[in-house]
User: Fold these one by one.
Assistant:
Number 1:
Amino acid sequence: MDFSNAISESTSDVFSTMVMLDAIPGSPLAEKVLSFSDSITGMLGFSGDIRGILRIHCPNPVAMAITGNLLGMEVTEMDEDVRDAIGEIANMVAGGLKTLLARENYAVELSIPSAIGGKTYTIHRLARAANVTVPFALEAGQMLVELEYLGTT
Amino acid sequence: MNWEPNIIAATTEIFSTMLMMEVVPEPALSERVTKHNDSISGIIGLAGSYKGMLAIHAPAPVAMTITTNFLGMEVDSLNDDVKDAFGELANMLGGSVKSGLSENSRDIQLSIPSAVCGEEYTLDYQPKNRTTSVPFKTGEGTFVVELQLEKQE
């Protein structure tokens, strides 16, 4: 299964129907991005035929633009609304991926969304897990959607 | 829902059998800690008949001591060994909580673990209820195990 296409499809769907912001997918990155500054990462773990984590990494201005559009209000600081909104975006994108995976006969169950944010943080992945990261260009900057997974051959 | 007994059972089991470390539970926190400084967090999602996530948060010195006990090697910074150890700890704690909740190991499934570290970061998740945080004392300082879990109908 082509996971980068699945990420693009699911993310574009969420952005066109729920967030109402243009998010243009680029080519998958060759390397994992490990460290983030003034950013927020929405995460959602899932398990079943494939085990993994979906992550959405947004620099603060991108996160505030997404939250503003999602909630229909102006957002000027990285508050709880933003942390909830970016977790919710991860939840929606993972929900879309779950549907796409089901079409390929992979059943997965989702855990709950969480969000990590801060001035500087590093995310460590399992060395043996596969990883696909697709960048999306938004007016406010670049967002990365990453799928880390184990269990397909 | 109060997950204190589940957290204490899993944490004392893993620390005594896998790390040969005595850890002493303190009363559960009345409010969860959102912000972490110079710390590391191991995180894992749970999905299936119970849905949620487990996280273990430790300040750098405590994290290094735990890793030394776990891997039997000296560590002097939050390097990849510490990050691997915290992902694996979250995985083992999740596994222990899971087997305490269901006799059928397929009812609840774990996502893959990840670890986050940094000078200053926050961790939030949704929903915010049904969460319990228990601090544990070690010779080097205190770490916190946090569990958010909801039974699915």
Note: Residues 28 and 134 of chain A are 4 Å apart (CA to CA).
Number 2:
Amino acid sequence: MKYLAALLSGLLCGVVLFIVGLYYNPFVGRSTVSPLAISDTDVHSMSYSAVMADSILFTNDGESISKPYPEKVAELWEPTIVDTQLLVTTILDSRGQAAGIGIKMSSPSEKTRLLKSQLLVDSVWHLYIPGQGTLAISQTENYWSYFRDIIVPAWRNSSNSWRGTWTKNMTIGPGALGMAAVTGLSGDFSGEQGEAVESLNAQAYSILQGPVAMTGTLIVAMADPTGS
Amino acid sequence: MIKTFILGLALGLLGAATLVYVTPAVDLQREQSLISVQPNQGNREVFHINLPYDRIFSGSQNGGQNNAFPRAIAWPQQQALDGSDSEIFKLRNSKDIVVGIAARISSTKEASGSFIQWMLHLPARGSIFAGMQPGVTEKGDRDGLLLAGTREFHNMSGTLQERFDTDTGTDISGRLELVASLRTSPGEAQ
């Protein structure tokens, strides 16, 4: 009997040790400098508020932490899109002035591997910058650090919230050096290809309402196909 | 007894790791792709939108008026957005099952020329970006070209046709049909 108890307690300890090791894995989550930060091509810096109440529209299945905004917007409850999130937001230029409209659609990626500390999301942006043109951005983002550094601490906190300063490049692909693929669709960007990196800067998060103070940044570098 | 405990510990570690490795963390719901093969290679897939039920969002600014749907939306009052129109819908396959989301952005007052673009997002498959011709055909359809694709639609080229049918014979006031004719084009890789 005591051997069975020892085996069971060993099993339990093993599982707990695995979860702790996965959560505190020291080899992941380190902030890296975006390759675009040292690029010699012209880059466009754009930002948006990642707080749902600051967006034009946000919707999901209606049962997640971040609630749809405004309240009566259609929810994505159908089985094929139940895990998808839709964001329509004002895109700000590098001076913080409204520059255009961005539509972002995100769905969990089936390439997610928890053993590799990956919580992957496939997302696409359709950006319309009046006077300049439209852009398509496709990327894979890793939300593991976001989950580990913000959501879990907020969940453990007695006030169900997290405060601090957290900045992270979310984009990890599909392009070389972990960058998003950008295609110019019209206007000045027409026919151009480029790369992009999306990052999040968080100051406050609540388990009850999602991001409270959070900004997203898109750094886009376009390459002229003519090389001029 | 210590040896038994250590054996349990190792089994617990290994078992948890195996379970996490073999169990998919994300398993997206898939619908059968209703694709027909075209005689000149490539494939054809028909999507549609039932109006007004599938409309999630609509925002436009013409002459300073706020024409947003739902009405609670605060559409940005940027003069630069004058003449533009953004709409988002749920997207259905030919069996009338929702398989994704579609966004349509258009502008009639861009200096570089007016444009109409579609973004179709099918969570389990990928996304399509298409640019449409400003004019319509004799049948009232609008033709467009695939400009970019992701995942399953990466390295593909082809066309997207937009049709609007008001004679649905049901309580649906209109049916917006999107016909994607795509083929693999290795030479046009991103």
Note: Chain B has a mean pLDDT of 87.
Number 3:
Amino acid sequence: MANDKIDLTVEPGEIHALLGENGAGKSTLMNVLYGLLQPDDGEIVVDGTVMSFKSPRDAIAAGIGMVHQHFMLVPVFTVAENVMLGHEQTSGGPVGFLDRRRARRELIEVSRRYGLDVDPDAIVEDLPVGVQQRVEIVKALTRQVDLLILDEPTAALTPQEIDELLAVMRTLEESGKSIVFITHKLKEVKAIADRITVIRRGRTVETTTPDASEEQLAALMVGRSVILKVDKDRARPGDTVLEVTGLTVYDERGHRAVDGVDFEVRAGEVLGVAGVQGNGQTELVEAIMGLRPPRTGTVRVAGRDVTGARTKDILHSGVGYIPEDRSVDGLVRDFTVAENLVLDVYDRPPYGSGLRLNPDAITAGATETIQRFDVRTRSAEAPVSTLSGGNQQKVIVAREMSRPLKLLVAAQPTRGVDVGSIEFIHAQVIAERDSGAGVLLVSSELDEVMSVADRVAVMYRGKILAIVSPDTPREDIGLLMAGVSPDE
Amino acid sequence: MSEGAGAAAPGPERSGGKAPPEAPRERATHRAGSEPTFLQRFLRNIWSANTVTVTVLAIVLAMVIGAILIIVSDPEVLAAFGYFFAAPGSALRESWAVVSDAYANLLKGAIVDPAAVQGAINGTNSWELVFQSISETLTYAAPLIFTGLAVALAFRGGLFNIGAQGQAILGAIGAGVLGFALNLPLLLHMIVALIGAVFAGALWGFVPGYLKARTGAHEVITTIMLNYVALLFLSWLIIQEGIQDPGRSDAISKPVDSDSYLIDLPGPSLRANLGMVFGVLACAGVAWLLGRSTFGFELRAVGSNPDAARTAGMSVTRTYVLTMVVSGALAGLGGAALVLGTAHNLTVLVVGQIGFNGILVALLGRAKPWGVLLAALLFGALQAGGNRMQSYSGISVELVTVLQALIVLFIAAPAFVKTIFQLRAARAARLETSLAKGW
């Protein structure tokens, strides 16, 4: 059961934040509201009328619109074409011509009325993410919706774009639209929401106001008090453990994803890589790990050149790797927890040597690791797919950190993970740092980078624009993330 | 129009076009690897079924359909059904008589004939006759164990080895040629011939494995092609001078040296031979390989999630090649079991259909070594019993082929259908969300 007797009331002209951890049931609730799922019990009342939505079309007809986390726009179409798509106006009868002019006129009218500035003739793929999102919102508004559901709208935005989005939301609120704002980011909720409904494990925990402190909101989300700040001492950097020079990497489409990057990570420090997703972070990490051949440049781990080396050799030379997508690259779904815990050390003693595998040692090792890293599982022999997302991530963290490391490469280590597990994983990363390993932390969550890292490298279009202190104001880092160099 | 809109609005993650660098990079998170392939889903579905109940039901259901086929193919019984309303009893009686006679002979031919037991006790026939049926069953089962294991192992490694047939043919050639070309002492000759089969089969598995690893050529296509190549090579080979039996004008090779025979276990009058023993050993070997070897760990990891395997430092391409080599070697042993065990000559049809039946055996055995053993025994029993059914009840042995096919169909079809529906559901869900997102 994803939703258990949830109550949610949204008043006209209010911004209502729906706050909850991943897997708390936020998306399920919204999919019910939007007609994608049918409730087993309970009802949806719009303006005093009980409604039943069989499909999103019914929901739109009732005035409910939704902007998903991942936009659905045709990249090669213009803004106007995207807005009219699915809602085409024709002139001259049922098999007439597309009435582009009317669509364009409607679009301009809506964007004027709500101050949503978009160029109707721009090609969508040329627009920044923040503007693409605005197109989605305009698209919803041309369908005359009264209630707009925004699902994690800030996930892919730079801090400046987030500010613009919040301003747009305020404009809409003033013109009488209601907004349901789904998020797990406490700062944004406090900044914009009129009321906040917190849900946990499919139940409504409380509806509160933004006067509640971040700590209180986090505690409501998790069900216990949490430490939001990462507890750490000053870094004591030692020798260089990772040295990247002139690294250039191409992606599978032949684009230069990483463009001449230089940096180093010292033992005992965390270097955070901030940046909006898709600016080459994935390719950078894959090149370091030997998963993607670099075009030029070198990668040195603890002084040894490992450019183009096999992934296995890099891992075995004391590098731990937390890949950014655990279900694709991190875990073998059909394997047990124990087998996943040795996925990159199964061929080394005591787990195996030569052709011989030692299942008893694997189980014994797993039992100990599960305890040490507090992985919640029925047993070491349970398939890893039966674990929650946070515990699956802990399996990867446990696997990589249960051997001595010189360098830890952590890509999005807390994506899609509950607050409790985030706390735990951050503590583990800091512990690894304090035991003398260098850490390269790549994250598109700026908060995560700023609270965990000792130095912050900002990546934009494959380049590292600057390496700054985590005490740098958010606005300055935000500008860097948007590609504005400090010296410009 | 919104269907059209949804379909035409694949969104940035599937556009493949040149998105600006700041667009969310969906490719990494939406790669093909994040969704299980058809084969992975299919195997998962086959495993998730209650194997014992489903298998028993499938066998019973196949027998019922087989009974109907027996009835409709018998003109006399069919004639009795012409008077069904006048004398329903006679039609049913006759149907029962013919079906029960056929299936009784099937059982007698597969397991044991009670008359032979009686005769042995009374001293009218030898005890060997008692074991005749079970010996035939084991004889037919042995090659199927090898090809079944070959296909099952490839399944576990995420590969669909349709080429067990060709690999078995190569194995038969390897064993056969070494069997008549050399002159070695007993046992040693057999071992050398078997090693020849292993190498020949492994070579025929290596080629598609290497092509897949190197160029990405799909193993289903390449193995099917290589089946033809193997068959045509065999047809050509056995009419060449030095290979063809000089005393014969038809396409048949010289007989293999009797020192290379797989030794008949119980005695010369029974056909069961060492092949069965090697088959059981191979099952144990594959079980060990899959569960207790580092190679098996790699094989299963690559078969289940190649992306994660690669990220953990395994070589996916090397594992594909090795999997196909081992699979081919096993299938090659299947061919050798026929040549050295029963046929003793190379002919065009020497390996029969063991490669393709191996696919059925692997499916029926749920791609698990000991499951393959049981499935091969069942298929062997049906084949042995079918021979007796043909000669004693006059029912074509082809009925057995129908029964085998039906059993596998009833087991594999639900998983197959479920997989198709899952894929359609997954696609529908994607379409639905894209509809939602595209308004």
Note: DSSP finds 17 helices and no strands in chain B.
Number 4:
Amino acid sequence: MDGWRPGASARTLRARAEVFRAIRDFFHARGVIEVDTPLIGRFGVSDPAIEPLFVSAPRDAIAARRFLQTSPEFAMKRLLAAGSGPIYQLGKAFRAAEEGSRHNPEFTMLEWYRPGFDLDQLAAEVADLLGDCLGALGRPLPAVSTAAYAELFEEVLALDPHSAETDCLAAAAAAFTDVSGLVLDRDGWLDLLMSHAVEPALRDRGLVVVKDYPASQAALARCVERDGRRVADRCEVFLGGVELANGYRELLDPQVHRERAAVDNARRRAAGLEERKLDPRLLDALSSGLPDCSGVALGVDRLLMHALGADRLDEVLPFSWGRA
Amino acid sequence: MASFSTNEFRSGLKVMLDGDPCSILENEFVKPGKGQAFNRVRLRNLKSGRVWERTFKSGESLEGADVVDVTMQYLYSDGEFWHFMEPNTFEQHQADAAAVGDSAKWLKEQDSCEVTLYNGSPLSVTPANFVELEIVETDPGLKGDTAQGGTKPATLSTGAVVRVPLFITQGEVIRVDTRTGDYVARASKN
């Protein structure tokens, strides 16, 4: 009989509203403007690990279906290329089949882009923003530290994630969970180790900015040479061991963009997934010139979960997937 | 039997894994924002009782196990098998020592218990949480003992040995928590 009730208490709803307001105040004070791009687009991302939800009218052909956006990235980049200057978007994003204590298929994402910022500047701004959001709830910002992806693997697992053989990664994983029957590529094992071994080790370390991801996990970040090794100029922000934000020094070159999409689609094919067409308007925007910029997406629901000491997203959402 | 995908794994679901029926205890979805999604699943092997965690790629599936829990009446033991009956159909099942295991010491004839059937045969037996059994042997109670006193061992009609207060005497019927093996109270005599 109580199925109609929200997961979030009245107190939690007020905290959500405080955080929304802190975010808008933060960007207003810094001259970053709010934009609201479409939630429904004609194209979806090629990332093999991200599946969209579709929308279609009753008599639409499959070709006419549209994608609920998994992030506002493509539309925001078109705005940047058109000369918007620094922009942010606070809204819903959708990812199929991602449901659990830290995942909800429909979630609130804050994404922003800073022309002229490098990734360190952007990571510093993420920490400032989190300080304001936590402050609005009367909570202090924990200690902030930075670590390279490889440093953490070295420390927690005593292996080099850039050079270790796949077998060696699989053997390391077996110490943390039963992996019998699991068939993964090299990045899959790295993901398993990151989520099962490294993340839990970050639980008591406050705010940790992890940078220099393997080049194979660059997604739409630029790759750079660091200490003679090619890495992705990408960072992830962990708060209390929970992944909160993912930032890139954005890839500008439309040709490299096409190549990355081709690699994604090859992996999608191999995994039996539908391939994704590249958005030609995004490519045209990139060709016309995306300003040198860094961008980041942050999970607002997870931030609330952390700030309020909740164990499940369901406790901080008005109506999670199961209640919607 | 239907098969179940990782996103359908719920606590209590029975699945086949490595040829054995298992019960799912917990299922946690983990996924880096950009990366492979996994389900970390805690399972109990219903044959061995072993509990462990296995990680699956999200979207993989397992075949369901033909496992059902049925309330049955315990009839008797012939020394090799324990015999049970479904009260509605009068259908009888026999369970061996491996299936009955430690539960044997709580089974009193005519009592109801939960029999887990795997492909129609008893896989395990779970006694009621509380059973009432007669004490067949214990040292005599000492005068002046009260409820706060110490305890002594008592052998029950089924062979189980439990610690009881000193004032409890042979021939009395007591109530025992089968999950812990603890004495709960004197049972009212019928």
Note: Chain B has one helix and 16 strands.
